[in-house]
Automatic annotation (TrEMBL):
Entry keyword Repeat: no
HECT domain ranges (all copies): 523-857
Lineage summary: Eukaryota, Metazoa, Spiralia, Gnathifera, Rotifera
Keyword field: Transferase, Ubl conjugation pathway
Region (Disordered): 344-400
SUPFAM superfamilies: Hect, E3 ligase catalytic domain
Protein's recorded name: HECT-type E3 ubiquitin transferase
Species of the source: Adineta steineri
Length: 857
């Protein structure tokens, strides 16, 4: 019925036109630039064929002015209410037939005015009578829309009674066998007409209609939206309409969702089902193992699904917990200070170089004014980015107009109403060829690329994000190498296309400090090249193993007790900055920050464990009370009790119960107490019921920020020297940064077995190999982690699981009393061909239990 109606409208438009002499629709006979010639328009068969084609592509549809007056005068709104729906269902039950309900659904769900005025709040019921009066007295298209000063695009109001609507739709879908076909047909009519209206000059009037947004909530509530019968036509057309709204209208819809959609997960499920089904359809006609260039992003309808899912993602954020504006402003200020510091350090080194050259060339020396000017310029740029949406929009593919309109920065939210993982479609992510997506993306200007999964980081799995970051990094390295090649061709001075670091094993930290600090400040682009390690006096080409060994050795040294830069929290077994570390360790902290950045850039997992708050801080965040739960659990628990203490219920005051003042002590790595005043004369200010929240805020800030500021600042500076120009902050959440640096704690040893390779005469069917896996699979969790540390240098898995470790098991001679050994640089286990499973279990257990440092390797 819907297709027939639309086709007839297109047929009328092609044969008679719309009657508007100024018509600009090339698919209308009234248009002076109509794309059809008279011969075609006078042939009914050809016109009928074109009408069918235009209906299929949802081409622009004009409204016949001569028909409009008649239609308007005949408008009679037939809306649905909860009571009327109950009455209809009861009548159908009495007559044992459902035609009455089907007829009403057909009338209401196929008509915008009827459906949008259904289930209205009591205070907006007068809109219906206003419409009836205006429709009988007006012959303009304006009369098809209802304006109400209480409903605008700028506010978050809606005329729909959400609760009544939900109860009514819940009742309606109980009879889906009787009405689903009618719903499908009716929605097809409604959505096609809506689409045509949006593509016409009436879009603004439509979006300003007081009841317009009611349609989306009613349709989203229908469980039919996830039905395969609906997915490829109704759902796609529905999502197309949403994504064709103006940015202002999309922003309002997101705000309405965050305010009224208490069942947001149902909406998310609709869209995820849509994306999954379109992925399956793509798989059906595309062999992803072939050389086909057709990407999943080319699947028709995929963009609409992702755009709507992004709206739901933003609504989820708005329903979640955002940092306070004071915290956000402080973080922006810290970013500006760090930006200024980076400029100043670089300028100071340039000034030193210039001074050195000027002492021999007598050229004028640069003054400190340059530093100030550079800093001011940097500050101005950063502030401009914060206040000007256009700059941000043009600079990053990870931001979009809707995000900027809503003023949303995902990393300002600790969490949404639902987990961020809810928005990751694992099945679709498995089919995304991220390398091809990125290459396709960078070959086109940003304003030309219509759709790429790269634009939707919230949708990408962590594995795909890491792959994207690595590809982006490799692309940077490639461009660096290409520019070096061109330089070498036209210059007599060759430049190394890789970042080569030559160190002595017995002076590891000193050599790394000198080279990395210089490159980070003087030539930071060097750090973007692929890292190659060379140990002085040793043969060997770095194919990944030497780099891994370098990181293992240097982290073991610099995190050791000799430097006393960090201490271990006994509760969490995590590292924390020593608040009383020596004053002259700035360079060492900078080195650690650079190492973390280089590890990410070169895809190397480090054997270190920081609490989550450190990774939040590396993303420019500051630590707050909530972070103490994972970094200082006992203190968090005590402060929680302080905040929830009920003086009336407990029969005593906070002063008597806790005896706290605004003077506190923090323990350093040597067990000494360092005294801090949270406020002036803190020892004389008691913590009371009135000021306890202030105490918690100041104490948390001291523990997580101020007490370690001198140590964290150079550490963060070193990290930024490597990652500053990457997409790290736009792509990843803080918890994902932890996975990048230190790997995952989730271990599946079946994955390790499936990806293992064998050497030296072993195969997967060798008796010793069979015994080995039998022993390993029966180890305790603690023993398995020890084994991982023994063979790989870390007890964590890389992103994507142990399948990505590629363990190599080599035969290390015949049966013997020797213990197994390993080369952690290459994830290699050297295993003698033990004569029995008991002997293998004994020797392997001894090896992993006593492998301290690198003594057995």
């Amino acid at each position: 019925m819907s297709a027939d109606k639309s086709i007839r409208q297109y047929f009328h438009q092609l044969t008679n036109g719309c009657g508007n002499n100024q018509c600009s629709n090339v698919y209308c006979r009234s248009c002076s630039t109509c794309e059809y010639d008279e011969k075609t328009l006078n042939d009914p068969n050809k016109v009928a064929a074109e009408a069918i084609r235009l209906c299929g592509k949802h081409a622009q549809l004009c409204i016949d002015k001569n028909m409009l007056k008649t239609n308007i005068e005949e408008i009679k709104i037939r809306n649905l209410t909860e009571d009327y729906l109950h009455e209809l269902i009861e009548q159908c039950k009495k007559t044992a037939g459902w035609n009455l309900l089907r007829d009403e659904i057909d009338i209401i769900f196929s008509n915008r005015l009827n459906l949008s005025t259904s289930f209205l709040k009591k205070e907006f019921l007068e809109n219906i009578s206003i419409k009836k009066e205006s429709s009988s007295n007006s012959t303009t298209s304006k009369s098809l829309f209802i304006n109400d000063p209480r409903i605008t695009l700028d506010n978050d109001e809606i005329t729909l009674d959400i609760d009544i609507m939900k109860r009514s739709i819940k009742l309606l879908v109980l009879y889906d066998d009787e009405i689903s076909s009618t719903i499908h047909t009716s929605l097809d009519i409604l959505l096609n007409e809506l689409y045509c209206e949006l593509k016409s000059s009436k879009q603004n009037d439509l979006e300003m209609d007081a009841n317009f947004f009611n349609l989306f909530f009613i349709i989203f509530e229908l469980s039919f939206l996830s039905d395969p019968i609906f997915l490829f036509d109704i759902a796609r057309l529905f999502y197309s309409i949403l994504t064709n709204l103006s940015i202002e209208a999309q922003a309002k819809f997101v705000r309405l969702l965050s305010k009224y959609a208490t069942n947001l997960t149902d909406y998310i499920s609709h869209v995820q089902q849509y994306i999954t089904m379109h992925t399956l359809r793509w798989c059906d006609h595309t062999d992803i193992k072939s050389d086909s260039e057709e990407l999943l992003s080319s699947e028709p309808g995929m963009k609409e699904g992702l755009d709507v899912l992004r709206m739901l993602f933003y609504a989820n954020l708005l329903r979640g917990k955002r940092d306070t504006l004071d915290i956000i402003e402080t973080e922006y200020d810290n970013d500006e200070k760090m930006e200024i510091e980076l400029v100043k350090r670089r300028q100071r080194r340039n000034d030193d170089t210039n001074n050195s050259e000027n002492s021999t060339t007598n050229e004028p020396q640069s003054t400190g004014e340059n530093t100030t000017e550079a800093s001011a310029t940097s500050t101005t740029t950063l502030r401009t980015r914060r206040s000007t949406n256009a700059n941000s929009d043009s600079e990053s593919p990870y931001e979009n107009k809707l995000q900027l309109k809503l003023d949303i920065e995902p990393n300002e939210y600790r969490h949404g109403q639902y987990s961020f993982d809810t928005f990751v479609n694992e099945f679709a992510n498995e089919k995304i060829e991220i390398r091809k997506e990125y290459l396709d993306f960078i070959q086109k200007p940003l304003n030309i690329t219509e759709f790429s999964f790269i634009f939707y980081p919230f949708f990408l799995s962590t594995i795909n994000k890491i792959a994207l970051l690595n590809i982006e990094n490799k692309a940077r390295m490639y461009f660096q190498r290409r520019s070096v090649l061109m330089h070498n061709i036209f210059s007599m001075i060759p430049i190394n296309p890789y970042f080569k670091l030559c160190v002595r094993r017995d002076h590891l930290i000193e050599d790394a400090l000198i080279s990395l600090e210089y490159q980070g400040i003087e030539q930071p682009y060097e750090l973007k090249k692929q890292l190659f390690i060379e140990f002085e006096g040793e043969q060997g080409l770095d194919e990944g193993g030497l780099s891994k060994e370098f990181f293992q050795l240097i982290t073991e040294k610099i995190f050791g007790p000799e430097y006393a830069m960090f201490m271990t929290n006994e509760e969490t077994n995590c590292l924390w900055f020593n608040p009383s570390a020596a004053e002259d360790l700035d360079r060492e902290y900078t080195l650690i920050g650079i190492l973390l950045g280089l590890a990410i850039y070169n895809s190397i997992i480090l054997d270190i464990k920081f609490p989550p708050v450190i990774y939040r801080k590396l993303m420019g965040k500051i630590g707050t009370f909530e972070d103490l739960e994972t970094s200082h659990p006992t203190i968090y628990s005590s402060l929680k009790k302080l905040l929830t203490f009920d003086e009336e219920k407990e029969g005593m005051t906070i002063e008597d119960a806790f005896g706290l003042t605004f003077q506190v002590a923090i323990t350093d790595v040597w067990g000494s107490q360092i005294i801090f005043d949270l406020k002036d004369n803190g020892a004389s200010i008691s913590v009371t019921n009135i000021n306890r929240e202030e105490f918690v805020r100041l104490y948390s800030d001291l523990l997580l920020n101020k007490s370690i500021e001198k140590q964290f600042h150079p550490f963060f500076h070193g990290f930024l020297l490597v990652t500053r120009d990457s997409s790290l902050r736009k792509l990843f959440r803080p918890d994902e940064i932890e996975l990048l640096v230190a790997g995952s704690q989730l271990l599946d040893f079946n994955q390790l077995a499936s990806a293992a390779t064998y050497d030296g005469g072993y195969t997967k069917d060798s008796p010793t190999i069979q015994n080995f896996w039998n022993v390993l699979m029966n180890f305790t969790d603690e023993q398995k982690r020890k084994f991982l540390r023994f063979t790989t240098g870390s007890d964590r898995a890389p992103i994507g699981g142990l399948v990505r470790l590629k363990l190599i098991i080599s035969r290390n001679g015949p049966d013997a009393d020797r213990l197994p050994t390993s080369h952690t640089c290459f994830n290699a286990l050297l295993l003698p061909d033990y004569s029995s499973i008991e002997k293998l279990r004994e020797k392997l257990s001894i090896a992993i239990d006593n492998a301290e440092g690198f003594g057995l390797r």
